[in-house]
Amino acid sequence: HRPVTTSGWPSRLILIVLLVLSLLVRGAWVLYQAQERQGSEQLGRISVDIGDTHTYIEPVEALIHGEGYTPDYRMPGVGAPYFIFRQFWNAGTARDAYVVLQLLLSATSVVLLALLAFKATGKVRVFYAVYALYLVSTYTSLYNATIGSDSLAVSAIIIHLYLLEIGLSQQRKTFLVGAGFFFAGQRASFSI
Q1: Pick from 7, 86, 11, 77: which is nearest to 43 by CA?
Q2: Distance between CA atoms of 118 and 83, rounded to whole angstroms?
Q3: Which of 41, 134, 144, 187 has its CA 20 to 30 A from that of 154?
Q4: Share of the chain above pLDDT 70, in %
Q5: pLDDT at 21 over 90
Q6: What was the pLDDT predicted at 192?
Q7: pLDDT at 3
């Protein structure tokens, strides 16, 4: 079974342009939210609080300060990237780095979801329709500026499915390992 994209479509140039567009659109939404939620809701320069953000952050901060880890029934996958970022930066910068990570994964998942739709249908129109609809979808992009499971888990599911499809169709073990990594990350960050 050969992948549909071996026909040369979409070209790398198209994918790069669409990825940059995704970064710009989703990034603009993050900056808009950061501007609108200045004050106590703003945790860093671009990261914002949506009400339950502290339930993801406080257990990690307690662990860093030697007070143990009590996650308040939250999945540890959300706090894991934040914990890693806190090893290098202060809390505000680590929260912003987390938002940048989510933004990169979210923008990438827009392109990968469109590619999956193209691989499933072989139709260019479907590719662009899925790309456009998911690009403007506020369900996940609304949460890119926050620390929580919504954006991270959805991006991880899409990336997992894309890597799984490539791994199975091309029989490439490295893609299957990557698919497993993103599946585990999704499962650790959001219990569906």
Answers
A1: 86
A2: 37
A3: 41
A4: 87
A5: yes
A6: 41
A7: 44
